[in-house]
Design goal:
Blueprint (H helix, E strand, L loop, with lengths): L1 E3 L5 E3 L2 H10 L17 E4 L14 E4 L1 H18 L14
Amino acid sequence: MTNTSWSGQRRSFPSAVRKQIMDRDKWRCQIKGPACLGKATQADHRLAHAEGGTDDLSNGQAVCKPCHDVKTQQERVRGAEKHSRKRKGMQHPGFR
């Protein structure tokens, strides 16, 4: 299954690696969020490509669609914040 990074680029595991991930995790969701279905249908990158993750087996986890959607949205928010032109937490020097 594919994973979407903050930039909208889709990345997926090679099919052999995806099968290894799903079998290793016994087709059970590893995130177990509030809306979790329990049965995994997708292979997810624990650390997204946009954040430096790889397609290695160790960076994969089996997840259900609702949990994957929540995680992907969180990754998009982090990516947007990282690349925002706004400065955060910086007070104007004249106000210090």
